[in-house]
Specification:
2 copies of one chain form a homodimer. The first copy, chain A, is of the alpha/beta class. The first copy, chain A, has a 7-stranded mixed sheet, with helices on both faces. In chain A, strands 7-8-6-9 form a 4-stranded parallel sheet, with helices on both faces. In chain A, helix 1 packs antiparallel against helix 4. Chain A is elongated, with a radius of gyration of 23 Å. Chains A and B meet through helix 7, helix 10, strand 9, helix 11 and strand 12 of A and helix 7, helix 10, strand 9, helix 11 and strand 12 of B. Chains A, B: Its EC number is 2.7.1.90. Chains A, B: It is an enzyme of class 2 (transferase). Chains A, B: This is Pyrophosphate--fructose 6-phosphate 1-phosphotransferase.
C-alpha cells in the first residue's frame, strides 16, 4: 500500500487549477493510494487542521469531470508565505505533526512562485529532520511567469478568454461610424504574456488590437498620444490592449499619475482608477473622442466556460506527473512542461529542481516584442496559439455551466 | 415576383441581433424575394446611399449559420433620430428616393425604442404620400425595456452571460479565507432586467449574489452600508450586483456623488468612475476590507460565445415573422413575442401597432422585486430562466469563435 497523499492549492485562482487537482487525485487513486486529503485554503488551512477527504467528494468519474470544469480553487487558496525554519520552527513542527497524524507520505502544492517557495522550504526542512515525506510542486499561474517550464497551466485558458473577448469587443467597437477608442486592460503586472495574447484575436475575420502595451517596456505618454492620433487619421475605431502594469520610464505606474490628494469624493474617500480609465479620460479630454476602458478583471482568470482543452489536459497531466514522480522517489521538485515539437505541437513533462525556479519571474523575451514596441512577433503567436486550442464542453444545467462544490461548505 | 427588401440594424449591439438579420434574409429568400439589401450603419448610412447586397455575402447556408454566431451589428449601427416630416421633408424625400431606386417594397429595422420611432415615422410618411412600401420593426435590446412584447431578443443572451459570469465571479471571490466584497456592475440605466438576471446564478452549486440593487428603487447609502455590515458578520465573502443606474432618492446617480471639481489628474483632466468603483472605494475606506468593482461593460452585450439558443432562435423568428407579416400586408407594426405557456415554455409571434410601443419603457413590475428591496422574486426567475436555455456551439477556428464580416470592410 502506498502512503497517503495531501494536496493543496495556493495563490490566485485559474480556470484549470482544479484540473490539476483532478490529475493528482485520479493518478494517486489509480496508483493505489488509500487516502487523498485536500487542505482547505492551502498551507494556512493545514496549520489550522482544516482539510477534507477527497474520496468523500469525488465519488464517481462524473464528479472528477465536473471538477475539471469548475473554475477557481475548489479547495480554497491562501497567500501565506512560510517563515524560514530557523526563525520559526513551530510552524514546521505543526505541519509535520499534522502530516504524521494523517499518515501522509506525499505532499503536492499547486501554485505559482510563492507556492514553489513553500515546497522548497518544506522539502529542505524534511531533509533536515530526516523525514521521508516527499514534496512536489505543481505549476499554476495565468501570468505564465514561472521559469524552466515552457508555459504554465492556467495561461492557455486565460489567453483564450482574452483573445476571444478581444474579438467580441473589436466587433462591438465597430458598429458606430464615429471616432472611438476602446482600451482593454489585462492582468499581468510585471509580465506581458496575457496582454500579448490579445494579439491572437487577429485573423481573417478580425484585425486584432491596433496597439499592445506590455509591461516589459516603458510606457511613453507623448509617444502613445502621437501614435493614437496618427492611427485615428486612418481608422475611426481604435482598440488597444494594455497591461494593468504599464509604467513610465521612471518606474511609476500609469495608474499612479492621478494626484491622489485631489482624488477624493464628497466624504473624503480616496478614489482609485486603473491605467485604462486614466488613459481613456486623458484621450477623451484631449482628443474629444469617445474613449472607453474595459478591465477584464478577475473574469479572465476564472472563465472556465471558455477554457482551453489543451490547457485543461496539461493541467491534469502536470498533477498526475507530480504523483508519478513523487512515488518514484522525487522530492523538492516541480513538474515542468517541455515543448518537444512546435508543428505539430507536442509537450511532455519533466521534473526540475525547485531551487532553480522559486522566486524567479519569466518575462517575454525581447525578441518576441515587435520593433515598433506596440506588438508581439510571430514567434510569440506561434508559441501561444497551440495553448488555446480546443474546448471542454461545460456540463450545462438549466442554461448555466455546473460547478462542483465540496459538501462542507456549499456555495 | 415579390419586391425587394431592405434591412437595417440600429441602436446598441447584442449577441443575437444578427440572428434577426439572418431571419429576415432567409425568410425573404425562401418567399421568393429577388434582392435583399442591407443598409450600412442603419438609416444614417441609407441617407448616404451606403448599402450592400446580402446575396453577395450570404452565399451558402454556412454563411447564414456564421451570421447567427456573430455578435454586434453585422451591418453596423447608428443612433440617428429621424426628424419630424413637417420639419424636414428633405430627409424623407432622400430615403424614399433611394428606396425607389432599389425597387424596395419592404423595409425592416431591427432595434429598440428609437428604432421603432423610425418605423413609426416612415410608415406614417409613406401613408401621407401614398407610397405602398411597408415598414416593419423587429425588436432588439439587451435591456428588455420594450413594451407589448413578453421580452426582447438580445435579453436572454445577455442574461445568460451575466448569470454565468456571476457564478464564476462568486467562485472566484470564495478562494481566500478573508473578508471581501465584490461588486458586479451591470448595464441597464433605467430598468433592472439585466441586473436581476444575476440572481439566475443561484442554484445547488452557487448561493447567487447576496444583494441586488435595481434602478427601479431608490438607493439608500446608509441602508446599504448597514446591510453590508450585517452580512459581513455572517459571511466573509460578499458579492452584490448593482445596476449602472442606481440612484439616490433625489435622483442623483451614485456615480455622480464624486466631486468632479476635485476629481482630476495632474494634467487637470476630469476622471470618471462608475457606481461600482465608487461603492468599492467607500467600503474599503470605511470598513477596511478588500472591495473590488467589476464592470461587465460592453462584453455583456456582445458575448456571442455564451449566447442562449432560445434567444438566438427567437431573434431569427421575429426577423422571419416580420417578413411574413409585411408580405401579408402589414405596415407600421412591430413583431412581438407572446408567451402562451410557462411550463413548458412556449412563445409565439404576433404583430402590434408601433404607435403603442415607440418611446415607452418597460420596467420590472413592482411585485417581482423582493420586499427586502435587494432581491427579485420567483416570478422574476420563472420569467427569465426559460430565456437563457440552450447553447449554439460557436464555429471554433484555431481556438476561437469565428465571426462573419462583410467583404467591403474586413475587420
Amino acid at each position: 500500500m502506498i502512503g497517503n497523499v495531501i494536496v493543496g492549492q495556493s495563490g490566485g485562482p485559474t480556470a484549470v487549477i482544479n484540473s490539476s487537482l483532478a490529475g493528482v487525485y485520479k493518478t494517486a487513486k489509480d496508483k493505489g493510494v488509500k487516502k487523498v486529503y485536500g487542505m482547505l485554503n492551502g498551507i494556512q488551512g493545514l496549520l489550522e487542521e482544516r482539510y477534507i477527504e477527497l474520496e468523500q467528494e469525488l465519488k464517481s468519474q462524473v464528479e472528477v469531470e465536473l471538477l475539471k470544469r469548475t473554475p477557481s480553487s475548489y479547495l480554497g487558496s491562501c497567500r501565506y508565505k512560510l517563515p524560514d525554519a530557523k526563525d520559526n520552527s513551530e510552524v514546521y513542527d505543526k505541519i509535520f505533526q499534522v502530516l504524521k497524524k494523517l499518515e501522509v507520505e506525499y505532499f503536492f502544492y499547486i501554485g505559482g512562485n510563492d507556492s514553489m517557495d513553500t515546497i522548497m522550504k518544506l522539502s529542505k526542512y524534511a531533509a533536515s529532520i530526516g523525514s521521508n515525506i516527499r514534496f512536489m510542486g505543481v505549476p499554476k499561474t495565468i501570468d505564465n511567469d514561472l521559469e524552466a517550464t515552457d508555459h504554465t497551466p492556467g495561461y492557455g485558458s486565460a489567453a483564450k478568454y482574452i483573445a476571444g473577448t478581444t474579438k467580441e469587443l473589436i466587433r462591438d467597437s465597430l458598429v458606430y461610424d464615429q471616432k472611438n477608442l476602446t482600451i482593454i486592460e489585462i492582468m499581468g503586472r510585471n509580465v506581458g504574456w496575457l496582454t500579448g495574447a490579445a494579439a491572437l484575436s487577429k485573423g481573417d475575420d478580425c484585425e486584432g488590437p491596433d496597439m499592445i502595451f506590455l509591461p516589459e517596456l516603458a510606457f511613453d505618454m507623448d509617444d502613445f498620444m502621437l501614435k493614437l492620433e496618427q492611427l485615428q487619421k486612418v481608422k475611426k475605431s481604435v482598440v488597444i490592449a494594455i497591461s494593468e502594469g504599464i509604467h513610465l520610464a521612471d518606474g511609476r505606474y500609469v495608474c499612479e499619475l492621478v494626484d491622489r490628494t485631489k482624488y477624493t469624493d464628497n466624504f473624503g474617500h480616496t478614489l482609485l482608477s486603473g491605467s485604462g480609465n486614466y488613459l481613456a479620460n486623458k484621450v477623451s479630454t484631449e482628443f474629444g473622442c469617445k474613449a472607453r476602458a474595459i478591465e477584464l478583471n478577475t473574469i479572465q482568470r476564472s472563465a472556465s466556460h471558455l477554457a482551453s482543452l489543451v490547457d485543461i489536459n496539461e493541467a491534469f497531466l502536470v498533477g498526475g506527473a507530480a504523483v508519478s514522480a513523487a512515488i518514484a522517489g522525487e522530492t523538492g521538485k516541480m513538474i515542468i512542461l517541455k515543448r518537444i515539437s512546435t508543428s505539430p505541437y507536442q509537450c511532455i513533462t519533466d521534473v526540475y529542481d525547485i531551487n532553480k525556479i522559486a522566486n524567479l519571474e519569466k518575462k517575454i523575451p525581447a525578441g518576441w516584442i515587435g520593433e515598433d514596441g506596440i506588438s508581439v512577433t510571430n514567434e510569440f503567436l506561434d508559441y501561444a496559439r497551440p495553448l488555446i486550442q480546443g474546448e471542454l464542453t461545460p456540463y450545462m444545467v438549466d442554461g448555466l455551466p455546473r460547478h462542483l462544490v465540496y459538501s462542507k461548505k456549499k456555495q
